[in-house]
Design a protein that fits this description.
This protein is an alpha/beta fold and about 325 residues long. It folds into two domains: about 160 residues, no CATH class; about 100 residues, Rossmann fold. Helix content is about 30%, strand content about 20%. It is built from six helices and ten strands; from the N terminus they run ααβββββαβαβαβαββ. The strands form two sheets. Strands 1, 2, 3, 4, 5 and 6 form a six-stranded mixed β-sheet that branches. Strands 8-7-9-10 form a four-stranded parallel β-sheet, covered by helices on one side. The radius of gyration is 36 Å and the shape is elongated. The relative contact order is 0.10. Keywords: Glycoprotein, Glycosyltransferase, Membrane, Transferase, Transmembrane, Transmembrane helix. This is Glycosyltransferase 61 catalytic domain-containing protein. InterPro entries: Glyco_transf_61_cat, Glycosyltransferase_61. It is a single-pass type II membrane protein.
Amino acid sequence: MEVESKAKLLNKKKSFSHSTVLIAICLFSLFLILILYLAQPSPSFSPALKLQNSVTFLPIKDTRFANTAMKGNTWFMSSLNDTYEENESEYLYFPSKASDEKLLCIKRNDISDGTRNSYALAYPEGLTNSTTFLKGLAFMSDTFYDYGNLWHELTAMMPFVGWSMKNRCAKQARQVPVEEFEKDERPYCFEKAMVMRHNVGKMGKQKKLQVSDLLRCKVRQFCGINPNGRGREVTLRGEPSITLTLLMRNGLRSFKNPTAVINVFSRECAMVDGCTLEVVQSEDLNFCDQVKLMTSTDILASPHVAQLTNMLFMDRNSSVMEFFPK
């Protein structure tokens, strides 16, 4: 009987030991499952969604800076600081160290009220599925000035040309006018974006000359004109040949008595050996005609208007007489 009791007691201990081990294994397994479950990234707290939720869109046009619209950070993307390199125009480039490697994104489509269009910076991995991703390099400029005016259009373009020259003639992949964006709430993000908002800004004199030389050369090539200009011409007496061009216009800022003005210039030009006077109405010339005329002009006389942009096509060291008719 004693032996039988000991055997039963031993079996109970073994059974208890097995149960204890089994319970411990179950508890450990449940604990491990709980840890693994908690370690799984919740969809609502995934890194990508955190990045998406952290993107804040701000008005492209900040009216708080209306009185200093073209100064400092300007009222165009006012929260961003420009990058400035000596002798160059101020610029914003995305993605870059300055933007913390974030992309530039914009959304909405209002061509009359910039406060209804917005911008934001976002990491590539934080873009939503609804985002339209535009590959390549995009050039973007503010629209403080009316770019129907040739002079404002030229000075807005020059910093992009200067930046391209400095960066091995990098070219934009597209031109994307805001009015061509689809009229919806989807954001558009650029793989690379160069933003200028100061026109020529702090561009140095030497860089302006270099950019002008390049533009002049390309335009002359486009119009089939010798990129080097007409060269030095002399009269039969060996005196320098001088072409004085009086560029007239109609409408606002035109001369009230154009005949009197022409007579004055004719008289003065006749007093200089080798001087030839050209009187031209700018409206009568197409683009390449104007380039050809300016290439052969030594002295340009014109009212103060956007047509003076044509002086870009004149040789270096040419002269300009600008008048302000009342």
